[in-house]
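Structure record:
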Amino acid sequence: MTLPARRHRLSSAQLTDIAWGRPDARAVQVLYDAEDSRLRLLTAEALRRSRPAGPAVLDALVVLQAAQRRDDRAVTDLLRLDWLGPWATDLLGRRPGAAGQAATRLGALAAVAALRTGIDARLAVEVTGGVLHLPGTGTLTIDHPDAEAVLEARGGRLDVTVGSRRLRLPTTSAPGWSPAHTIQDGALHLLVDDQHPGRDCFREPPAPPLPEPVFRRWHDLITAAWRLLSRVAPQPAGRVAQGVRVIVPLADPPHGIDTSISCVEALGAVATTTPSDPALFAVTLVHEWSHSLLNGMLSFVDLHEPATALSASYLAPWRPDPRPISGILHGTFAFLAVAETWQALLADDSTAERAAAELALHRLRLAEALALLPAAPELTAQGRRFVEILRRRHAALMDTPLRQQEVAAAAARLDEQRSVWARQRRS
């Protein structure tokens, strides 16, 4: 994998725009370019240390380099769909089985890169467990649990041959073939990844592959959420479209509470339980993209002293357990974006009443967090400037008039939540 000899920089103005939650397209591209460089360096170092055996790994790397020379942007976009960060971390941590996957994983990646860039290539990979996943493309299930597959790219086609069976890609239908689920609507281009074995880097288990009727429900809810967000908040919607690349369905929890998570090793990937309605999912997209945005920014600047990152000493107003300064900063930044989205949803008749209730509650929660942060000794000078911008964003939210009964109801909800969490901490 060719290593890019590039430096990535964010200007002071771009850092300020990120703190305000309104980075321009160039700033977001810098974050992605820096993350791409980091992942390539991390993967190269992981492969160097783990030394996966066999010529198949070298063959795959040669094809990947040829594909990069043909169309580096196409290969970069593909690498973002292959969960390289979590896999490289597993390799460096010597997680059992990670090195053994190298030949098959890199071979499949290289074959898809050849397909997408139009170069010719021929690769042989081992298929274990009867499943061969081609990133961003689909999954082939075969009858034999262990077999060799020959992947041959030529003329914009990819032939997958296992024994006497041949599959020619691209195709939408063939025995044993499950094409990747994608959503395209205007500027929004998403992979709904319910197949890749590397998608399990979140705290919650991923859902199994979605049957087609279930995916159609996801498709319709995500599309409706995106259109709603585009209508009431077009600029945040544009940033979500540029920033969020992958949605990973999570297994629905037994308690039935909507859950969404971002992953520090996968910029722009969002894991979520089944969306319950378009408005909530529009907010979820903004929420999790905000976490990714801050993760990207933290590659350029320290907001707090690194040694204090994991010292849990603050009670956040949005969860019961003590949090470190990094968690308070992340939560405040993300929930400001959530509150601003509910503020925008006040303009939509179908969501206005709910949006007012949610805005009132989030304003109160954020006020508590922002009362703590300015005095936090862990903050760097840059962190204090960041917090001051967050306080100004919150002040703008407080300028939005709400009815007194909405404010009182939010205060009651927050008091009840505090009581429940206090009982949980004592038990």
User: Anything to note?
Assistant: The first strand starts at residue 121 and ends at 128. Residues 182-426 form one domain. The chain has a mean pLDDT of 91.
